[in-house]
């Protein structure tokens, strides 16, 4: 049997994440994506002319983020015109799927060098804006009939599935009360603030002008302040804006190539993409996919949860990582060690690549062999990726 070659990562970089209407709100998303691409090649020393494809995640592909933002970013970065680009939409997991696509292309010998990444400037292209006014809705009668009787499904709305409602359903199913969710959110901010103070993000961030620090971390928050927020999805609910991911702006990029090409270029691979999976899950509760995705990834990799030294589980809402912990039995001290999207923000199409960038830098800095990231996605899906470190900083 012929040995299947490895897809390795030789560099990963991200912009700082901006708050809604914050430091990145005046930056065109194409320009922000181009900045991430430029920083990636500058830091790795790879000639952009060698790159065979750019796979970029973006969820709201409308307006400034329409017409294949991946290709537009390549042109904005000043890269050779022969470098193509393709834009991916797997909802919140779009840039994680871009990474899977890049790895698959390299392993299948369809390409030697591919950039995977993503961008979303939610300040300028709001979430849901791709559902155009007067142009119908994305769910037909068959979908509406299929889920008509499901608790939390509202057939009267253009988008009858609601992630916030799904988070409330999860909190109820796993028995999480308001105090538990608020405490988790408070800890996310505390971990992110500690990571900033320790300079843990410095090496992974490419500044945008003078802006070089994630803007969403609330150092002045408290359990008392979090407890005063209302629950918008259910009058009797427990999920608030404080225990949900922040609407944000950002971009990230990861350089993937074959191990053979890395050796030929004299580059030291950081990690190999050990295992990549995707699953579907209940689209009404919507956010439970990381649980079966993690198990599928571990089974396919021949690993156990105890073999993994760090986990990034996207904090779309606090019930997501909490239910994941309850079902997987993972060590909570290894989960989102530098804080998550509740504190750092969730620029939709960029978040998967942002998680990869943060996870790989953390693994390299701490001598961790295996890391796993997973993310719930709109429509009831989840990607999971296992990385195996090959070098340490």
Question: Can you describe this structure in just a few lines?
Answer:
The chain has about 400 residues and is α/β, with parallel strands linked by helices. About 35% of the residues lie in helices and about 20% in strands.
How would you sum up this structure, described in words?
This protein has 393 residues and is of the alpha/beta class. It contains 12 helices and 10 strands. Strands 1, 2, 3, 4, 5, 6, 7, 8, 9 and 10 form a 10-stranded mixed β-sheet that branches. Strand 9 and strand 10 form a beta hairpin.
Q: How widely separated are the two ends?
A: 35 Å
Strand percentage: 15-25%
Number of helices: 12
The count of β-strands is: 10
- The proportion of residues forming helix, as a percent range, comes to 25-40%
Rg (C-alpha, Å): 20 Å
The global form is globular
Let me know the largest β-sheet.
10 strands, mixed
pLDDT average, as an integer? 97
- Unreliable spans are none
Task: Give the SSE order as H and E letters.
Answer: EEHEHEHEHHHHEHEHEHHHEE
Topology of helices and strands:
Layout: E1 7-14, E2 18-19, H1 29-44, E3 53-57, H2 69-76, E4 85-88, H3 94-107, E5 113-121, H4 141-146, H5 163-174, H6 178-197, H7 223-227, E6 248-258, H8 259-264, E7 271-280, H9 290-301, E8 310-313, H10 319-328, H11 341-344, H12 348-366, E9 370-377, E10 381-389
Parallel strand pairs: 3-4, 3-5, 8-9
Antiparallel strand pairs: 1-6, 1-7, 2-6, 5-6, 7-10, 9-10
Helix pairs in contact: 1-2, 3-12, 5-10, 9-10
